[in-house]
Amino acid sequence: MIIPSDHTITYQSTYRKKLLSSQLWTGLFAFITAGLLYIITPTGKLEIATIICLLLWLCIGIVHWQYNKKYYRRLKLINSPFPEAWKRYLEEHSTYYQNLTEPEKEIFNTRVQFFLAEKKIEGIDTEIDDTIKLLVAASAIIPTFAFPFYDYRSIHEILIYPNSFDESFQTTRYEGHEQRITGMVGNRFMEHSMILSKPDLIAGFDGTVNKNNVGIHEFVHLLDKEDGAVDGLPEIFLNHSYTSGWLQAVKQEIDSIQKGHSDINPYGLTNNAEFLAVVSEYFFDNPEKFHKKHPELYAFLSSIFHQQPD
């Protein structure tokens, strides 16, 4: 990863340039429109033209604000302090965060604030607090950390369930009823939603190295989905020249899992999309062990995510 020494300068300069460009074009459009209006307005009706111009400028200003409100909001957030309690929690519960340098942690903190300001996180039949919201944001940022301006435009809300659920989204437990789903990227009528089981989300950030993190798992599915298909080939990140090599590596590891010669979660056998999500959990949560046991897969994931988390 190449991390700027001062992320505030990077973000501030980028967003200010965008706003300045928008303001210049908006002003130019308003000036030209007003000029044309006065040219075609009869001399005796200039007062009407003035009123129309004021109303037009008001509308243009509203459109400008709506189009650029994300940049105004983010510039304000950059100067907002990151809660010390959140820093301590991440230091104690996220091995990924612990391994970041101080400048990288500052970038991570800023992106947490961006994410929480722009995505709706809601508990369904369960209470959620800032800690749960923090873990959701951390899960989103970890796999995209090397892409500082990536903001998950396809997702609008994250729904937190009290526990695991079934395919009908039922969480009620009774004899003979299995609830094996701990997370899901929505589709059809829930196209822009994600569902996460609260206890499983928390378990992914227990402060120890492990291979399971449902939050990371589901956000990797979202990245995979960016090219239009959840197929284990995140083409917006994976260079086409690596595609055949990646698929071959996946096939070889699936064979090893089937023969009982791999420590990768057998859930990865489901399909290539689940394989990508499963090994991504391992890659980010226990990178040293993953690198040692699966150097080829580690190299591919480093290319996909542009990170070497160990």
UniProtKB/TrEMBL annotation:
Keywords: Membrane, Transmembrane, Transmembrane helix. CDD domains: Peptidase_M90_mtfA. It comes from the Bacteria. The keyword Transmembrane helix applies. Gene3D superfamilies: Collagenase (Catalytic Domain), Glucose-regulated metallo-peptidase M90, N-terminal domain. The keyword Transmembrane applies. It comes from Xanthocytophaga flava. The chain crosses the membrane at residues 20-40, 46-67. Pfam families: Peptidase_M90. InterPro entries: MetalloPept_cat_dom_sf (IPR024079), MtfA_fam (IPR010384), MtfA_N (IPR042252). GO terms for cellular component: cytosol. This is Zinc-dependent peptidase.
